Amino acid sequence: MPVIKTIGRAATHTLAVIALLASSTSGMAETRPARAAAPVWQENPYPSTYKPYPGEPTAIVGATVLDGTGSEIANGTVLLQGGKILAVGDARLAVPEGFRRVDGTGKFVTPGVIDIHSHLGVYASPQVAAHSDGNEATAPTTPQVWAEHSVWPQDPGFSRALTNGGVTAMQILPGSANLIGGRSVVLKNVYARTVQAMKFPGAPYGMKMACGENPKRVYGGKGQMPSTRMGNMAVDRQTWIKAAEYRKKRAEGKLTDRDLAMDTMADVLDGKILVQNHCYRADEMAQVIDMAKEFGYKVTAFHHAVEAYKIGDLLKENGICAAIWADWWGFKMEAFDAIPENAALLADAGACVIIHSDDANGIQRLNQEAAKARAAGKRMGVDISDGQVIRWITLNPARALGIDQQTGSLTQGKMGDVVLWNGNPLSVYSRPEKVWIDGALLFDTADPARRPVSDFELGLPGEGDVK
Amino acid sequence: MIRSPTHIGARFGTLLAALLMAGTTHAAPAPASPPSGDFAVTNATIAIGDGSAPITGGALVVRGGKIVAAGKNVVVPAGIPVIDGTGKWVTPGLVTAMTDLGLLDVGGVDESNDSYAATARFSAALDVSMAIDPDAPPVAISRASGITRAGIAPIAGNAIFAGQGAVIDLAQNGPGTIHPRAFQLVELGERGAELAGGSRVAAQALLRNGLREARELAERRTDKVAGTGTSAQPADALLTRFDAAALIPVVTGRQPLFVHVERAADIHGVLALGREFPALRLVIVGAGEGWRVASELAAAKVPVLASALADLPGTFETLAATQSNVGRMTAAGVRVAIGGFYDNDQPRYATQFAGNLVGLSRVPGAAGLSWGQALAAITSIPAEILGEGGSIGSLRPGYAADVVLWDSDPLEISATPVAIYIDGKAQSLVTHQSRLRQRYRHPNEGALPKAYE
């Protein structure tokens, strides 16, 4: 397709995934490092150094609480202490001595929003060629690359996701140029000097895979395999065969050479890394489900699954979530059968629904996207409660990221990741008013000092503005 | 766009035929068809579209394809069909000032995409009215979302001048009206720099040269008529004669010039251009940093077409982008419409964007719009920008009866049109998507495969 600079909102969804711009070579002539010690095979060589910021014991009272599990509490009370959810209840829940009271009358409380599909940091703003770090589009399978090694922690997009979207955690994925794009990373949405200090403690890794048009277009365009959908499957299968052999040798202690790519894939086969699979069409998802059975791995979620509504039964049966936009349609051939009732039909079939963004703008409105999807269902006669809809952007993505024991719902003992909305978050007129992450107040519309500004924006026009 | 001859061949034709066939042999069950022609809506919330607040318990009367009256205390003539609007909202049909509707079937499918001509021999002369396809699936999707009129503009592919846009209606049997060559579009920001050879400096030189060549061609034509010269382009001309001729209406102020720029400095530059060439009828498109020069824009009376929610420094020309941009410019007195709508930013999102600007007015420190202003930014103001402010985009008497009946507050995310009229004629709400929804309401196969449903 023509690479078009659209007027208005950048078309990041199409440009980001296939951006193949030559990156600048400046800064590559560094002095050679001193000879390192013999490599050590570490399980977790780039560990999270995230530390929660201090918060004060807080009681949000009088708000409607949509707790992320699907439940709704009118005139509810949410207590935060020590960075955790201390208790959630109705008006009968007593506020302990010494808690700061936040009046939630007429307002709504939800868990922090979680985006399971973001490219913040790897396709950072400004989206110049020098920031194009999301697709290692030099080989059709690159399981050896790790998104966290591309994330720029100063992406201004993180702040917009927090202040306008109430996003407190997200998965950053490599793009979809490759069949196997590499490892994802889960971040807390708290600015830090290093990526390690943003990494969600204890979150499992994901591995990005992609079906369909993108890999075959990118590599077919270079005159190499895959150039067809059958080529996509063949390359995938051949790579899984290799991974299975590697895994066997690794388990038997017979490896002579370490292979970063195969390490990741063997960890998938061991169930330690979750497969996050970009796949639009129903028929292709069905192929992938069989491929996963053939090689003994599990797909955790199909992302951009615009045709998931056609196979809700199959997804339910195999325990696979559909991570979808509410209503993106028609921008490429494999999105031609997208319908806004996708989420509702999946919910109706009992399958797991997640609303995702894949977009630095869309991540600011996941609540609205969920609301749109719900409304489309309602018109068709599938009525889904506010609470269940909020679950699509909180507990369900948390579960598909393997972090649902720590966050994703307002459940006693979980992280104090909480959004206070100035109205029903399923209304276009509502915005986050305050956001807590691990109990620390990190955004407050009433306090400009609680509004993050990335290094990039300092001293430039618009620094510190409402965005 | 690059089209190899094989792509135009049988395969695509067959597919298209199959789609058309599917449409005719398995037509959707007809919804209870709303009345066409003369009709009234009563007991509805009426939003005129001119910036005023919505009126509850109002009525609308349509006769002969025109609005007769809308608002409170409207007398409904005896004998015309009446729609009970209880619980419903009525607005003018939505107007999109700049979009690619009708120029593509699927954006990512090059073979179907006429929005962009990277290797064309012409630029300013390109005239989209020749290529608009009212049957393109995005047109039906947009119509079903309440869009009734649109300015269709090409994307600049090979030169700073993108070509000439047209204004169409989205009526289901093809536009009843096409106003061709309604405006010219030029790129003068980052994109313009790239197209001009690498810098804004080059883009400015090309622009001025283009305007000069157009002026000189107009003079030569006069001379030719007088028998004292030739209208042929001089040897050092950069534009083809066809392109230069297309710019004559621009330099003489008969055709508006839409200029895409984003950063404050570039907006200043466009305003300076307006002083240098006073005949130009300028519209600024983009204006991501427009709020920083809002008072100058207002003083120059240059209207703006801006994205509602762009708030990222996506490029170095939008460092100061904020969702408060539209609100701040509007407060300063600039006429601002929401747009343009290209690629995946489809016109059907206009109501969501407008609703967000209303929501923003409740955020401390932010600037949004009132409800009435927000609706105007997607109805009457884009109509004005397209030069059609006296005939579409409002429910004022005498305006075209482009009317949308909504199930609830149209700027709220859950709202949807229940009836749409263009020139008073009821429009189909059937789309590729609505047919899929019907087929997959119960996803499992019945007695026969889905293809038979």
Task: Give a verbal description of the structure.
- The complex is a heterodimer of chains A (467) and B (453).
- Chain A has 467 residues and is of the alpha/beta class.
- Chain A is globular, with a radius of gyration of 22 Å.
- Chain A has 11 helices and 17 strands.
- In chain A, strands 1, 2, 3, 4, 5, 15, 16 and 17 form an 8-stranded mixed β-sheet that branches. In chain A, strands 8-10-11-12-13-14 form a 6-stranded mixed β-sheet.
- Chain B is of the alpha/beta class.
- Chain B folds into 2 domains: 5-28 and 433-452, no CATH class; 94-392, Alpha-Beta Barrel (TIM Barrel), CATH 3.20.20.
- Chain B is 28% helix and 20% strand.
- Chain B is built from 12 helices and 16 strands.
- In chain B, strands 1, 2, 3, 4, 5, 14, 15 and 16 form an 8-stranded mixed β-sheet that branches.
- The longest helix of chain B is centred in the middle third of the chain and has 26 residues, at 200-225.
- Chain B is globular and about 70 Å long.
- Mean pLDDT of chain B is 91; it is low at 1-32.
- The chains are: A alpha/beta (467), B alpha/beta (453).
- Chains A and B meet through helix 9 of A and helix 2, helix 9 and helix 12 of B.
Beta content of chain A: 15-25%
User: What is the CA-CA span between the terminal residues of chain A?
Assistant: 32 Å
Number of separate helices of chain A = 11
Over the alpha carbons, how many angstroms does the gyration radius of chain A reach? 22 Å
Number of strands of chain A: 17
Name given to the CATH homologous superfamily of the domain at 112-408 in chain A? Metal-dependent hydrolases
Number of domains of chain B: 2
User: In what range is the share of β-strand residues of chain B?
Assistant: 15-25%
Average pLDDT figure of chain A? 93
Count of beta strands of chain B: 16
Helical segment count of chain B: 12
N-to-C SSE string of chain A, H for helix and E for strand: HEEEEEEHEEEEHHHEHEHEHEHHHEEE
